[in-house]
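Summary: Need help interpreting a holo structure output

Steps to reproduce:
1. Submit the protein chain below together with the SMILES for zinc ion.
2. Request a joint structure prediction with the ligand placed.
3. Inspect the structure token block that comes back.

Expected: a single structure record containing both the chain and the bound molecule.
Actual: see attached output.

Input attached:
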Amino acid sequence: MNDATRLPGAVACATLPHMTAYTFYTGAVADRAALHRADENWLERARNNPTARFAPLWRNRSLLRNDASADANTTAVLWTPDQAAPFLSATFADPMFLGLHADGSAAFAIDLSHLDETAAADIAGDGVFLDLWEAGPTLRDQDAALLAYARGLAFWHRRHRFCGRCGNPSLPAHGGHLRRCTNPDCAAEHFPRTDPAVIMLVEGLVDGRPACLLGRQARWAQGMYSTLAGFVEPGESLEEAVGREVLEETGVGVSNATYMGSQPWPFPASIMLGFRAQTNDVALNVNYDELEDARWFTRDDLRSMGEKGFSLPRRHTIAYRLIAEWLAETDQTDT
Ligand SMILES: [Zn+2]
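--- attached output ---
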């Protein structure tokens, strides 16, 4: 499947919530099997079933190996129960239960971040621990989704080892989907967090021609422009966050915001919520503390970006999808 076929319209996205596999980093497991997470006996049987597989993680990096024969460049290294056994008792967290694949096999992740660099290299075998943020697009869809899920859950555990209420250590439970405070007087339960971020394509008319507003940050690859984005704040609707972020970053006020779809982005802990927004005032007042630049791009500008030294975000991102969908629509209505 190439990227172009992964670009359904917003209607399909909104009305077919199960048809989200086209979005990279979704579709990790067929069933998260949440109802089994509290059943230790069930989890133990699942861990010991020969069909179970374990995704090792080390300090935000996933274990990958080159796979020249595959349709992707890289394959996730997944351990059998026998391969995983030596590490299960040594980790500070039990293996995290990710869910069940369609064939019934269970997926787990093991965080080996306590190992030093030499030990991590030793256990990597013919693989190598790489950051999915960089390597993800070289993997098959399901490998990438599974490892992204594992990365996000493992990151949460490492950053929440102490109770946020009383400060005592907390311990994982429910297959890694809960941490419970060890102080019996507190016993607070803490659940994995995902930070919502809005990401939006703003459209307007520049000299009578449809254009979309893209910006860039100084740390990005030279010439790359993307949709604006930012975190949702407490007490704020998603639509309000869209309006605030666009105004803060570019001085442009948007008149409405329409939800277009989402993408998990556990790098380290976000979900990107995609929007399309409109404005009647295209005058820019760029906030250079937030952005290096922002500008309007017509469809012709987007098509000739490469010739002018510009580029778009990577194709597996929702940012790219928002731009590609807009470009396809203007093709239909504006030519
Ligand atoms: Zn506590």
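--- end attachment ---

Reviewer comment: The pocket of zinc ion is lined by residues 163, 165-166, 168, 181, 183, 186, 188 (CB under 6 Å). DSSP finds nine helices and 15 strands in the chain.
Status: needs-info
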